[in-house]
Design a protein that fits this description.
Blueprint (H helix, E strand, L loop, with lengths): L1 H65 L7 H67 L1
Helix pairs in contact: 1-2
Length: 141
């Protein structure tokens, strides 16, 4: 009876460890996917911001042309430069945020990978407890 109980305890501990490993591996895969998605979203946002800037500049040029104003005046150059500088600053900030988000996902993936690697070993070590208790029981009997 004691042997069966010990075997069940060991099997339960190992099964729990295997489940923890599987869960951690799933989490690692999900975090890696999230990191790739964050990088893709960063590229999409950057592309959209560049397109928005081009559209705004085109609209400004068209409006200036429709009103008979020169597109090559110093005033126009200053306005375009300010708009480009603001857009570049906003894009750089957004890109840094997206890169940090992707890095956070990668760090979480590494952590989950480490948990997956050690969970099975930890479970095996924990299964030694019932075996030790059984050995102590056998010596006492």
């Amino acid at each position: 009876m004691a042997v069966a109980l010990t075997a069940l305890q060991v099997a339960g501990t190992v099964a729990t460890a295997a489940q923890a490993r599987s869960t951690a591996m799933d989490e690692q895969a999900q975090q890696e996917l999230n990191a790739r998605l964050a990088e893709t979203q960063a590229l999409q946002r950057d592309t959209l911001a560049r397109e928005d800037l081009k559209r705004a500049e085109s609209a400004t040029r068209a409006a200036r042309g429709a009103n008979g104003l020169s597109g090559s005046s110093p005033n126009a150059a200053v306005l375009f430069k300010e708009r480009r500088d603001a857009s570049d600053r906003d894009r750089l900030i957004a890109r840094a945020d997206d890169r940090q988000r992707a890095a956070n996902y990668r760090t979480a993936a590494k952590s989950a990978g480490s948990r997956a690697k050690w969970s099975l070993a930890t479970g095996l070590v924990k299964s030694a407890v019932p075996i030790g208790q059984y050995a102590h029981y056998r010596r006492a009997a």
